[in-house]
Structures are given as C-alpha cells and as structure tokens.
Write a structure and sequence with these properties.
alpha+beta, 20% helix, 42% strand, globular
Length: 120
C-alpha cells in the first residue's frame, strides 16, 4: 500500500515547524532545516501492534497535520516527520540498590514502538 500525496499535502508538510527534540529552544540552521524538509519515501513498521493503524499528529497549535499510517505501508514524508515518529518509544527501567537499602529506578534505554525505514 503506497500513499501518494497531492501537491497541497506536500506543501502542508513542508510548512510544518521543525525543532530540535532534545533542545526545543535551539534555532535550527538553514542548511539543516532544508535537509530535514526534503521529502522521501518511507516504509512504516509497527513493532508493538503489527497490522493496526496508527495515527500521529505533528506540529504546533496553529500549524499541525494528522498522519494515519499502516504497518507495511509506504509513505512520502519529510525527514523531520520521520525523525519524530522514529523517536517515539517506551522507556526501559532498571532497578538497582542505591547503597542505603533501597532500590533506585533508572532509565536504561528505550524500546522503539515503531519506525520508518527509508526505501529507495
């Protein structure tokens, strides 16, 4: 299943805001922003629930877009939307003794919920 966007949708995706997920107040350099706004074809893989439609919203309160993706489907998306979807994950917690007779909860990593694989 391949979803082809019309020119209106492509223009809407390119107009969405781009920000640094780790430091939202950082200004993205012009060359990096141009690279992130490039459109590419991605295959969506849902590792949690294969076969289930997933809906994502991306943007801010004034400029946002809703995406509906199916496991195994191919979609034309910009790189920053793909990065956003790839960054979604479930935390993996590790519990260890802290030396005072208590168990301390630490984040050991993240298990990816879904990812977009670039296809050529």
């Amino acid at each position: 299943m391949e979803q082809v966007l019309n020119l209106k949708d492509e223009a809407k995706i390119k107009s969405l805001p781009v920000w640094d997920r780790k430091n939202p107040s950082r200004k993205i350099p012009e060359k990096e922003e141009k690279f992130l706004k490039e459109m590419s074809t991605y295959e969506f893989v849902n590792t949690e629930e294969p076969g289930v439609l997933q809906q994502f919203e991306y943007g801010n309160t004034r400029n946002h877009m809703k995406f509906t993706l199916m496991h195994g489907g191919k979609y034309l998306l910009s790189r920053f939307v793909a990065q956003h979807i790839n960054s979604r994950g479930t935390p993996i917690w590790d519990r260890r003794p802290n030396g005072y007779g208590q168990m301390e909860k630490n984040k050991a990593g993240e298990k990816p919920r879904f990812y977009l694989r670039e296809s050529y």
